[in-house]
Amino acid sequence: MEKIPVFQLNDGNSIPSLGFGVFQIPNDGATYKAVLTALRMGYRHIDTAVAYFNEEEVGQAIKDSGIPREQIWVTSKLWLQDYAYEDAKKAIETSLTKLGLDYIDLYLIHQPYGQLTEAWTAMREAKEADKIKSIGVSNMTPKIWKKWQQQGMFDEVMPSVNQVEYNPYFQQMELRKLMAENHVTLEAWGPLGQGNVELFNEPLLQKIASKYHKNIGQIILRFEHQEGIIVFPKSVHEERIKSNQAIFDFELTSDEMDGIRSLDRGQGSHNPDAPGVQEMLLNAFDVHAND
User: Fold this and answer.
1) CA-to-CA distance for 43 and 55, rounded, in angstroms?
2) Across residues 9-19, what is the average pLDDT?
3) Between 20 and 30 A from 84 (CA), which of 111, 121, 179, 259?
4) What is the rounded CA–CA span in Å between residue 17 and residue 89?
5) Is 52 a catalytic residue?
6) Closest Cα partner for 132 from 159, 151, 164?
7) What confidence tens digit (pLDDT) does each residue in 140-174 have?
């Protein structure tokens, strides 16, 4: 089992370039089992969120793994119900309690709407207090990024990452240029195109996979790694959890990289700029339903 390489963030912290995502894994023991399996297989980066409702099981699996805390990178995310300053402060403490941790490695603004500057202030203060090591944003398009940057939100602390939809069909070219100006690292959600059948049937990817004796998913993840993208594919299946990290024993050629870049369609399944998205998301989850 090869050690997972790290990327250095703009705040100097080093983040494992491959992680394990727990979005939509139920809080019924399944998250605990999946995270424990991933950690035992060598993963050292777990990505959760308040709105995933499984922080407790993530924390318990980390505790029961026996792996020293400082060797595991933990990401969680603030839900948009809690962006007001006092609510955000309370939500950060709640995440720490649920995870059973003294600090969170990376904390993100989950959706880029509403009282972002208040949430960002609370996150900056938690970072200064060493309750959070790195702070970042999620789902920020070029339009949204420019809006908040122009309003001075990032004047004191630039986000370390922007976690957005990314896969070979949606390579976020404009956004990556914008982020590169401030050395902000892109994290990919849906790095395998959320199981897009058309993507997995791409002749180019099939040809490359055959050459390296890898599966299509491994070729996609390897491409993204070489592009400097942090990925955290999600699976509850042990064999898939294992195969998703077997991407560090080969390297794609520059021609192969260019070929996969040419698959970009410039459009994803989720458009944060679309009207009504904020309201739709706010109604989708109530993170205080069980308070």
Assistant:
1) 17
2) 97
3) 179
4) 28
5) yes
6) 159
7) 999 999 999 999 999 999 999 999 999 999 999 99
Q: pTM of the full predicted structure? A: 0.96
The full 3-state SS of the chain, as one line of letters, equals CCCCCEEECCCCCEEECECEECCCCCCCCHHHHHHHHHHHCCCCEEECCHHHCCHHHHHHHHHHHCCCHHHCEEEEEECHHHCCHHHHHHHHHHHHHHHCCCCEEEEEECCCCCCHHHHHHHHHHHHHCCCEEEEEEECCCHHHHHHHHHCCCCCCCCCCEEEEECECCECCHHHHHHHHCCCCEEEEECCCHHHCHHHHCCHHHHHHHHHHCCCHHHHHHHHHHHCCCEECCCCCCHHHHHHHCCCCCCCCCHHHHHHHHCCCCCCCCCCCCCCCHHHHHHHHCCCCCCC
Mean of pLDDT values over 43-60: 96
**43, 52, 166, 169: which is the annotated catalytic residue?**
52
Cα 117 from Cα 277, distance rounded (Å): 19
